[in-house]
Design brief:
single chain; about 475 residues; alpha+beta; Rossmann fold; Dna Ligase, domain 1; 4 domains; ten-stranded mixed sheet; elongated
């Protein structure tokens, strides 16, 4: 026979599946249902398996401390409070732990900010073995709100379902489809948002992002897949999510800098990261001088916003280089002149960097008769083992741009690795297939670790 669980009218409890390790709860046998404090309540997920996300203030009087939670919805029920008001509430099921014993309970979600207790336990949540002693409190071991320090909460944080937006105009590309399928396989809700159909409300009190006539919900994370053709508007949308406070995989500043080849090379130079000798000027009279700064032909002439190998020309002689530069200037196009690393032999190394570490490296080889190794230009990819210097260079380059996900392209030169480009929206197809690694899964592991429910600490308002 199981020993009875003895409870007073007030007990310390925990809800481990929600990432709430310590709550003071009122035991109220006069109430039928149990209630948990929640605000910013948002349903999400598919209709056949709906979930709900909410924030929770676990410590009364400390509204600057909030814990993000999510759970599966089991019902939506009308509940009448003690003052006679009826409210339609979401109902979730989760584990309730008191002392060393835990069992599943149903909880209704409602705003209890004005209540003394963040949780009320009704008679439906009590087991047959429970004995209530109304005159006593804390019959079970007492806990402490000290567990809500960032480090301690992360230690006990559960795996929770996330709501993630992928900013992409191309839902059917390999990378976008993999991000959706992998995220859903891990229990998250992943929504593809067409960046150009977003618009913004600029408001100091409540900045918002709207989409197809509706305000977008609060996302746990945003994964930008911003195409080069819409960089200015796409980064403006990313910046708006940053303003709202949403965690963004790649920030607007990093995306903008990586797309501008001149700015990108200036960042690399500032961090003393190896790259091919590069020159830039605006005056047509400086053509020969620019070329002399870089070195002898052959030379690379590259548009500042080139992508996927487009807008990159190999000038094999000085005269050819002058002709290309003259042509680009005639089009009023901005460009760089760059050293051609002949010893690379038409090959480069693409390193996929996630969360500051190289997750995969592939060697891209140019097609016959082609100097560009981009896969979009007919290049081929094979797995490659990189050196410590190459790994360090790739990681430093991604960090210099503040990118959570980056494709860093390296050339193997006689004097060490040189960064050719840092891509803020690297394609996953070639890297996954060549390396045989589940890079989409690795990306979600990094996101999940980043978004485990550590406290959200809002700044306290100073008293006048």
């Amino acid at each position: 026979m199981t020993d009875p669980i003895r409870l007073g009218w007030e007990e310390w409890v925990s809800l481990p599946d929600l990432g709430l390790p310590a709550l003071r709860a009122k035991i109220d046998t006069g109430a039928r249902t149990s209630a948990l404090h929640a605000y910013d309540i948002e349903p999400f997920g598919p209709a056949n398996a709906p979930k709900v996300r909410f924030l929770m203030h676990p410590v009364p009087g400390r509204e600057e401390l909030a814990i993000p939670c999510s759970a599966r919805i089991v019902d939506r029920r009308e509940v009448t409070s003690s003052n006679g008001e009826a409210e339609l509430r979401y109902v979730i099921e989760t584990s309730l732990k008191i002392g060393d014993i835990s069992w599943p309970v149903e909880l209704t979600l409602t705003d209890r900010a004005a209540m003394q207790y963040r949780m009320l336990i009704g008679r439906q949540a009590l087991t047959e073995d429970t004995v209530i002693t109304p005159s006593e409190r804390f019959c079970q071991p007492e806990l402490s709100y000290d567990v809500y320090s960032s480090a301690r909460v992360r230690e006990v944080a559960p795996d929770r379902a996330l709501r993630i937006a992928v900013l992409s105009r191309e839902p059917n590309t390999y990378s976008t489809r993999r991000l959706v399928s992998e995220g859903e396989a891990r229990g998250h809700t992943v929504e593809v948002i067409d960046t150009t159909r977003c618009y913004m409300t600029l408001n100091p009190l409540a900045p918002e992002v709207h989409y197809d006539g509706k305000r977008l919900p609060r996302y746990d994370a945003v994964i930008p897949r911003i195409g080069a053709s819409i960089t200015p508007y796409g980064t403006a949308i990313v910046r708006q999510f940053e303003t709202i406070g949403t965690w963004v995989l790649n920030g607007s500043a990093g995306i903008t800098a990586s797309r501008d080849k001149l700015h990108a090379h200036q960042i690399l130079a500032r961090q003393k990261i190896g790259m091919p000798q590069t020159a830039f000027a605006a005056s047509p009279k400086d053509t020969r001088n620019i070329m002399s700064l870089v070195g002898e032909a052959p030379l690379i002439v590259k548009l500042l916003e080139s992508t996927q190998g487009k807008g990159v020309v190999l000038a094999e002689t000085q005269k050819a280089a002058e002709s290309v530069i003259t042509a680009f200037r005639g089009l009023k196009a901005n460009f760089l002149v760059q050293q051609f690393v002949a010893e690379a032999g038409g090959e480069d190394i693409r390193c996929i960097v996630m969360g500051g570490r190289v997750e995969a490296a592939i060697k891209r080889s140019a097609a016959p008769g082609e100097f560009r190794s981009n896969l979009h230009m007919g290049g081929t990819a094979t797995p490659v083992k990189i050196t410590r210097a190459e790994r360090d260079t790739a990681q430093r380059a991604a960090k210099a741009f503040g990118l959570g996900l980056a494709g860093v392209d390296l050339l193997r030169s006689n004097d060490g690795p040189k960064v050719l480009e840092v891509n803020s929206s690297p394609g996953l197809e070639g890297a996954e297939k060549a390396s045989g690694k589940n890079l989409s899964g690795a990306l979600y592991e990094m996101i999940e670790k980043k978004l485990r429910p550590a406290p959200i600490r809002k700044p306290r308002r100073s008293k006048a």
